[in-house]
């Protein structure tokens, strides 16, 4: 508790994320209108009392669509980071602990995947497989595991030479026991930090792909897709751009604040960063 | 030095081969028949056969791969399905615009992050430091696909100060460069601050202060010089993020670069251009990383002679 008192930014992050998670879970109950309900006579209507964020090109309520969009963002963030972290940690543990050919192979694959900057590989994968939520999750997970594998492998290389691992081996602990009982718990804290910051990255990546027309296909609401629709109405209806962007920035800022706070808490040596 | 550069070049070879193999295989992962995906379900049989032959898809896979590598060595990346022009020419014509945008964003990021990072580190835990830290988190969190349209609304549509889109003089470059450079300036501000704080805590800085040197020399001449070495690496690594970010920025501002080319090619299902563009962006990234490593080893001899070298 003292930690939160001393770190207002982290508390802000936790509060905002909690609110967004509640919104995401309760979307059907909270959203004032069905997200796909059109009223063409009211298209591009500016914010009003009953439509606080206004209406879009098809007369749909932007607040309701943004609420469902947050749901997609959080879902994609958690699923992708979950899959990536599990795969990455397991591969990193194995490569770091056993070394040799497996390690070499893994590091070469990592090198190749890292030779594609940012979301370029995800764009390529979706371009090949076609847009859609499933392909989006696949593409982001395929590039996501790399950072967790590298992080875990690095940690294992550092820890496995320590005396307590040697002691465990001396009393007859098997490889599986050493990997999951002794090494894994020490790898978890940095992975949690990376995962929190990673969710922010995945949320931006999902929105970027949807913005480019390669993510969640219309008419399903996604914050990136909404921003892309707003692009052709910057003059006559800037509210199409302002509100979805605000939501996504707030969400990402909150995860970044939390990630930073966790890093200070779990790894005080990095506090300066 | 020569030995280090040779070693680093050799290390890049497997990566390049891996990237080429992955990009080559893209076309084979298209669900269903890739030729139908490119031409549409109702394309005439003659066109389908012709394209299959043009792309070499009727040959065994390993022959296709060898042909692809041979083509690459000759600079032959195939032809655009939509314009009929060679992919290499199409890509090379678009690359300068992207490099111009990336360099402008990098320059802007350095212009912001160096002074801000130095101020934050030297005035640690003051209001200015908190302001700089807030800026960097904010800069990291505001996505470029929101920042860009916001800048257009404010500076182009409301204030009428800068053009909305397209490539031209400096005025056309300002908004896209801010859009692309903000996240990088946020990252670099944090990096400069952290790196400088580490140097300031070291013995030699205390010694310099004890000798009575003025603070601006202690920081500017001694600490900053060493603090900037790790920043070079970050710039190199982040250059790739700039190239990827350019895809979105170019789409927003109709900037005629390689990123916009990629998205247009994806929408038109022009796969040879998609492959060529992805290859070109990745090669650019690998090259910049290579140059960064070499620059880093020049700046810090320990890398050349140490265990990594």
Write the layout of secondary structure elements.
The complex is a heterodimer of chains A (273) and B (309).
Chain A: H1 2-6, H2 8-25, H3 27-30, H4 62-98, H5 100-114, H6 120-129, H7 133-159, H8 163-170, H9 175-211, H10 223-230, H11 239-266
Chain B: H1 2-26, H2 34-39, H3 45-55, H4 61-73, H5 87-122, H6 127-141, H7 144-158, H8 170-200, H9 203-210, H10 215-253, H11 258-267, H12 271-299, H13 301-305
Helix pairs in contact in B: 1-12, 5-6, 5-8, 5-10, 5-12, 6-8, 7-8, 7-10, 8-10, 10-11, 10-12, 11-12
Give an account of the 3D structure.
The complex is a heterodimer of chains A (273) and B (309). Chain A has eleven helices and no strands. Chain A is an all-alpha fold. Chain A has helices spanning 2-6, 8-25, 27-30, 62-98, 100-114, 120-129, 133-159, 163-170, 175-211, 223-230, 239-266. Helix content of chain B is 79%, strand content 0%. Chain B has helices at 2-26, 34-39, 45-55, 61-73, 87-122, 127-141, 144-158, 170-200, 203-210, 215-253, 258-267, 271-299, 301-305. Chains A and B meet through helix 5, helix 6, helix 9, helix 10 and helix 11 of A and helix 1, helix 6, helix 7, helix 8 and helix 10 of B.
List keywords for this structure.
heterodimer; A: 273 residues; mainly alpha; 11 helices; 72% helix; B: mainly alpha
Number of helices of chain B: 13
The major pleated sheet of chain B works out as:
none
Catalogue the unreliable spans of chain A. none
| Element-level helix/strand string of chain B | HHHHHHHHHHHHH
- Largest contact between protein chains? A-B, 47 and 51 residues
Q: End-to-end span of chain A in angstroms?
A: 23 Å
Number of strands of chain B: 0
Oligomer: heterodimer
Q: What portion of the residues of chain B fall into strands of 2 or more residues?
A: under 5%
What Rg of chain B, in angstroms, do the CA atoms define? 24 Å
Distance between the termini of chain B: 9 Å
Strands of chain A, count: 0
Look at the structure and give the mean pLDDT of chain B. 89
Q: What is the H/E string of chain A?
A: HHHHHHHHHHH
Q: Biggest β-sheet of chain A, characterized?
A: none
| Proportion of residues in extended strands of chain A | under 5%
């Amino acid at each position: 508790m003292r930690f939160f008192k001393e770190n207002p930014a982290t508390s802000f992050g936790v509060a905002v994320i909690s609110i967004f998670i509640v919104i995401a879970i309760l979307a059907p109950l909270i959203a004032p209108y069905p997200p796909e309900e059109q009223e063409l006579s009211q298209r591009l209507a500016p914010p009003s009392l009953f439509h606080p964020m206004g209406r879009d090109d098809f007369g749909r309520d932007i607040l309701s669509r943004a609420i469902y969009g947050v749901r997609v963002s959080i879902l994609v963030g958690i699923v992708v980071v979950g899959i990536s972290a599990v795969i990455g940690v397991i591969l990193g543990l194995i490569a770091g602990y056993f070394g040799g050919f497996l390690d070499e192979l893994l590091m070469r694959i990592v090198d190749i995947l890292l030779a594609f900057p940012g979301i370029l590989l995800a764009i390529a994968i979706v371009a090949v497989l076609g847009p859609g939520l499933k392909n989006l999750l696949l593409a982001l997970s395929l590039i996501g595991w790399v950072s967790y594998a590298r992080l875990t492998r690095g940690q294992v290389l550092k820890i496995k030479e320590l005396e307590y691992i040697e002691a465990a081996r001396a009393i007859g602990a098997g490889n599986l026991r050493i990997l999951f009982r002794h090494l894994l718990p020490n790898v978890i804290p940095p992975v949690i930090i990376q995962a929190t910051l990673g969710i922010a990255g995945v949320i931006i990546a999902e929105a970027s792909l949807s913005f480019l027309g390669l993510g969640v296909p219309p008419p399903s609401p996604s914050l990136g897709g909404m921003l892309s629709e707003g692009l052709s109405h910057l003059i006559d209806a800037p509210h199409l751009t302002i509100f979805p962007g605000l939501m996504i920035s707030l969400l990402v800022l909150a995860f970044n604040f939390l990630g930073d706070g966790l890093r200070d808490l779990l790894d005080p040596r990095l506090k300066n960063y | 030095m020569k030995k280090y550069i040779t070693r680093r070049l050799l290390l890049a070879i497997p990566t390049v081969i891996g990237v080429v193999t992955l990009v080559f295989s893209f076309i084979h992962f298209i669900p269903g028949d890739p030729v139908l995906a490119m031409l549409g379900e109702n394309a005439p049989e003659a066109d389908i056969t012709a394209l299959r032959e043009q792309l070499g898809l009727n040959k065994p896979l390993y022959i296709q791969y060898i042909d692809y590598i041979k083509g690459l060595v000759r600079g032959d990346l195939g032809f655009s399905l939509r314009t009929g022009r060679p992919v290499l020419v199409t890509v090379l014509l678009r690359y300068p615009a992207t490099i111009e945008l990336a360099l402008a964003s990098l320059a802007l990021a350095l212009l912001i992050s160096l002074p801000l990072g130095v101020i934050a580190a030297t005035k640690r835990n003051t209001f200015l430091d908190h302001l700089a830290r807030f800026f960097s988190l904010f800069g990291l969190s505001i996505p470029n696909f929101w920042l860009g349209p916001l800048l257009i609304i404010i500076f182009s549509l409301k204030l009428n100060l800068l053009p909305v889109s397209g490539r031209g003089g400096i005025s056309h470059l300002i908004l896209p460069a801010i859009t692309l450079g903000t996240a990088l300036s946020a990252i670099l501000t944090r990096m400069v601050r952290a790196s400088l704080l580490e140097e300031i805590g070291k013995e030699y800085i205390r010694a310099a202060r004890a000798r009575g040197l003025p603070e601006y020399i202690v920081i500017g001449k001694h600490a900053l010089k060493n603090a900037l070495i790790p920043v070079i690496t970050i710039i190199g690594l982040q250059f790739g993020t700039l190239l990827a970010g350019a895809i979105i920025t170019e789409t927003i501002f109709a900037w005629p670069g390689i990123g916009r080319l990629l998205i247009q090619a994806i929408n038109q299902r022009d796969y040879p251009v998609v492959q060529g563009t992805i290859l070109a962006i990745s090669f650019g990234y690998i090259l910049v990383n290579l140059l960064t490593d070499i620059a880093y080893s020049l700046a810090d001899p320990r890398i050349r002679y140490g265990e990594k070298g």
